[in-house]
Amino acid sequence: MIDTRMMLFLGIILTILAAPAVGICLSLNPDTDVFPRIFSPNGDGINDVVYFKVDNPRLAQVSGVIIDMSGSHVASLVAVSDNIPTPDSFVWDGRDENGNRVPSGPYVYKIDGEGSVLSGVVVVAR
Fold this sequence. Notes:
By secondary structure, the protein is mostly beta strands.
């Protein structure tokens, strides 16, 4: 027969296991998960795109955009093909929504998911 102390212990363990884990949410480390931070989309096959490796343990719906320094929408981030570098990654090729090359300079990325916004800056160098 289970005594009161054992019931209390099991209740505590079940409560801990039933609670959502804190800190397991959408994340992106700008130092390691945005690469290269300065890229040159000139078609030479070297640093032509920038990758955004999003850690998405809950498999939430995620989207991203590129914004210029005036705050105008430039492009939507595209999910990577073939799950490279990871299934939850995005890529930007330095072009606007119409397929035109954007001018050199800094651009803000915004990635939305799970009620969070991950943002930072990448630089297009031509």
